[in-house]
Backbone:
């Protein structure tokens, strides 16, 4: 979804919500789009919104605009979990499930997180496509499967993270990019100035930009990272960097 289209849809959801006094929803949105949706809502001075993807910590979420009389809550969202079990001998992946969904003509906007582990998958979808998926999706990657609607219990770990631990000279963006990519400050600065680095889903062109805990970094060609901790200083005056790389 293009940014201009997303902006128009968020604005329409807020307007219709206020006009009709009824919740309106947009998405699923990826993390960059979700950050943009929040920014648009705040720019409209609209506070009755919520982002929800079916479980706490979901990466793909739906934007919900709620009327003043209604407290935003997750139960109001048109989001359903579907789950399936399959033979542990079938090494199915996130890509296998997503590819099959797309081949079935299911729009990406109607599909949330796909959490896969050995022998099990939980899929979060918009309510309007759930029956179609359960009726039509019987095979993934050559393996027979059948999706069921309902509480899947404990969720699979999903795609997971790689824990990263290093030390950096400062909390500048170029220092952190150099550490995460195992490259020099010069290489990191080149990546930044070329527009290949985004901080909290916005492109940043200055290596001197300060980074703090909970910031999200995306580096083209290297992946997406979450900064968990910067500091405290070591005995040599460097800062400890704890981060996670999305797998």
Residues:
């Amino acid at each position: 979804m293009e940014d201009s289209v997303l902006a128009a849809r968020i604005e329409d959801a807020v307007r219709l919500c206020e006009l009709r006094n009824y919740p309106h929803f947009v998405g699923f949105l990826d993390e960059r789009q979700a950050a943009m949706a929040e920014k648009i809502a705040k720019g409209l001075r609209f506070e009755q919104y919520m982002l929800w993807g079916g479980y706490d910590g979901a990466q793909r979420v739906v934007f919900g605009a709620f009327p003043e009389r209604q407290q935003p809550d997750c139960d109001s969202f048109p989001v359903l979990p579907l789950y399936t079990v399959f033979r542990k001998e079938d090494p199915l992946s996130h890509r296998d499930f997503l590819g099959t969904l797309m081949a079935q003509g299911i729009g990406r906007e109607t599909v949330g997180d796909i959490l896969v582990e050995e022998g099990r998958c939980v899929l979060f979808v918009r309510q309007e496509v759930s029956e179609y998926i359960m009726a039509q999706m019987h095979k993934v990657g050559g393996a027979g499967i059948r999706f069921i609607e309902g509480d899947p219990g404990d969720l699979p770990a999903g795609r997971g993270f790689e824990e990263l631990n290093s030390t950096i000279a400062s909390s500048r963006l170029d220092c952190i990019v150099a550490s995460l990519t195992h490259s020099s400050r010069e290489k990191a600065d080149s990546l930044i100035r070329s527009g290949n680095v985004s901080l909290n889903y916005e492109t940043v062109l200055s290596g001197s930009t300060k980074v703090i805990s909970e910031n999200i970094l995306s580096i083209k060609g290297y992946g997406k990272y979450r900064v968990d901790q910067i500091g405290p200083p070591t005995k040599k005056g460097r800062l400890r960097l704890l981060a996670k790389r999305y797998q």
